[in-house]
From TrEMBL:
Keyword annotations: Amino-acid biosynthesis, Methionine biosynthesis, NADP, Oxidoreductase, Threonine biosynthesis
Keyword Cytoplasm on entry: no
Positions of NADPH binding: 139
Pathway(s) it belongs to: Amino-acid biosynthesis; L-threonine biosynthesis; L-threonine from L-aspartate: step 3/5; Amino-acid biosynthesis; L-methionine biosynthesis via de novo pathway; L-homoserine from L-aspartate: step 3/3
Protein name (record): Homoserine dehydrogenase
Active-site residues, as the UniProt record annotates them: 238
Keyword DNA damage: no
Enzyme kind, highest EC tier: oxidoreductase
Family recorded in the similarity comment: Belongs to the homoserine dehydrogenase family.
Taxonomic source organism: Solanum stoloniferum
Amino acid sequence: MKNLPVFLMGCGGVGRQLFQHIVSCRSLHAKQGLHLRVVGVCDSKSLVVVADVLTAELDDSFLLEVCRVKSNGSSLLTLANSGVCQVFSGPEVIQKVIDIGLLGKSTGLAFVDCSASAETIGVLNQVVDFGCCVVLANKKPLTVPMEDYDKLVSQPRRLRHESTVGAGLPVIASLNRIISSGDPVYRIIGSLSGTLGYVMSEVEDGKPFSQVVNAAKSLGYTEPDPRDDLGGMDVARKALILARLLGRRLNLDNMKIESLYPEEMGPDVMPLEDFLVNGLPLLDQKIEARIKQASANGNVLRYVCLIGDARCEVGIQQVPKDSALGRLRGSDNVVEIYSRCYEKQPLVIQGAGAGNDTTAAGVLADILDIQDLFP
């Protein structure tokens, strides 16, 4: 039986779902000759770790207790009296995590980042130097300035980040296969936000933009403040990750990012309730006019990322009705990849591109993909 030691950063919805997947897949992994040995977990304020990272593990009942505690909004510190782990909090957490990475220098350790924090970037760059593996659902470490990015990806075999772009969809794996085969990719266009995919397909049916956004919020499709989705930054980060895979030396500052609301309706200017009640309806007429114009051209509107030889941008684009993007409905993600081999008919990848369950499944698949790097 091969043991693969895992340390998790981030215990939100995706991190907790990952623990549940690990526990539920024990018998499956045992048949494959693999055991995932979870040695610790941390959030932004506290850390739980086994006394001996090289041999011990947090058992399944403890992992499920971590899920219960964090689901209730409690701190990992409440697990201090369990007797099966060490608990740290405050400023020492980051240094303790780095120390754990150093312990794994000789035997290997998989650092899994399911947070949404930029604070993990420094830690990840250090543990990469130790020879540890890194698995990401967090997009921010891959959208840092190029100098830090180059360091993180300096050992590509030890890095997996499928879930940073399309949750569990095999977008990055497929793109890497195409690139590795020497087939030049010259264009990628994709709808990479389930939220904005839903919004654009609903307004296409004639519903007012403001009504659709409020409905999406009530259904839980958006962030608590929908402007976090409507601003396009999440899609921009995903687009930048793909562009860099193609060798583009870009930063977020180099990209054209279209926001679906004007600056004067931003979070720093307009309170959320005011935006939802008074701001959104002011945008209905403009969106409706763009929909009519697209329809007159035989097209539909989609909020997409567009990566080509000379540009990398995100925003509303007209796409043919009969294309994969034009047929998109609901909250699915769709990516079209054009290359020499896929010139007239692109490679199309479509499916659920959001959700804790789907994203965690993608993270787990990435962890399993690096098992051959461990003794």
